[in-house]
Design a protein that fits this description.
- Pfam families: PHD_G2E3, zf-HC5HC2H.
- Keywords: Metal-binding, Zinc, Zinc-finger.
- It comes from Tyrannus savana (Fork-tailed flycatcher).
- The protein folds into three domains: about 60 residues, 2-Layer Sandwich (Herpes Virus-1), CATH 3.30.40; about 90 residues, Herpes Virus-1, CATH 3.30.40; about 45 residues, Zinc/RING finger domain, C3HC4 (zinc finger) (Herpes Virus-1).
- The longest helix has 13 residues.
- Strand 3 and strand 4 form a beta hairpin.
- It contains four helices and eight strands; from the N terminus they run H-E-E-E-E-E-E-H-H-H-E-E.
- Strands 1-2 form a two-stranded antiparallel sheet.
- The radius of gyration is 20 Å and the shape is globular.
- By secondary structure, the protein is of the alpha+beta class.
Length: about 220
């Protein structure tokens, strides 16, 4: 019976197209009753979909996904508390806020990366709140690992995530002052990877124009 049921599910999924990439084989359908949007799990970020990795493991399309009721305190710097790069001045799929202190803002990909490294020690990087913060992040689709202790305590090769990268990691650094030399603007301004914030580059070392505001490392 289980085999037949599995085959039926696979056959039905093969007929559904992903609204994000338009290809067939979308196995995930929005949990909202009456919504027929389907998508592939890897396409979820592209389509701004949310999958909750707890309880019933519900998935939602961009229209019906849960949204944070709390908004960040006005007047705060619009920077991610993890990578220190700019974030939106309001909550969205890509920009999230701590429900406890309402001061900590972060990119979704930054808080997801922190959750995987922190494991059971996952908490707000600013106020250190854990219980309301943890439940909010789970509801908003952040996947949390069960690792213990955190990666930065068990693996000396992994930098603590609360330390800002401060060197140029290009294969050949062209800066006369060396990889750790940085300036506030100009060719020796240091840009961090907009996805992982774990690697950096001088503008000149990666041939970036002065108008370029973001950069991604090769790993991302």
């Amino acid at each position: 019976f289980f085999v037949r049921d599995t085959r039926r599910v696979i056959q039905e999924a093969a007929k559904k197209h992903c609204f994000a990439c338009s290809k067939m084989g979308a196995t995930i359908t929005c949990w909202k009753t009456g919504c027929e949007r389907s998508f592939h799990l890897p396409c979820a970020p592209q389509g701004e979909c949310v999958t909750q990795f707890f309880g019933l493991y519900r998935s939602f399309c961009w229209e019906h996904r849960p949204r944070q009721a709390v908004q960040a305190h006005p007047g705060q710097n619009n920077t991610c508390s993890i990578c220190l790069e700019t974030v939106e001045d309001k909550t969205s799929f890509k920009t999230m806020v701590c429900p406890a202190c309402q001061d900590a803002r972060f990119h979704r990909h930054c808080i997801q990366r922190l959750a995987l490294h922190a494991g059971v020690c996952f908490r707000c990087p600013c106020c250190q709140n854990q219980e309301p913060f943890l439940m909010e992040m789970l509801t908003m689709g952040i996947r949390i690992s069960k690792r213990l202790p955190p990666s930065w305590e068990s693996d000396p090769a992994v930098e603590a995530l609360d330390q800002r990268q401060s060197r140029c990691d290009t294969a050949t650094c062209l800066c006369p002052g060396g990889r750790k030399h940085t300036e506030e603007e100009g060719p020796w301004e240091l840009l961090l990877c907009s996805s992982c914030a774990a690697e950096g580059t001088h503008r000149h070392c990666s041939s970036l124009e002065s108008s370029t505001s973001s950069w991604e490392c090769k790993g991302c």
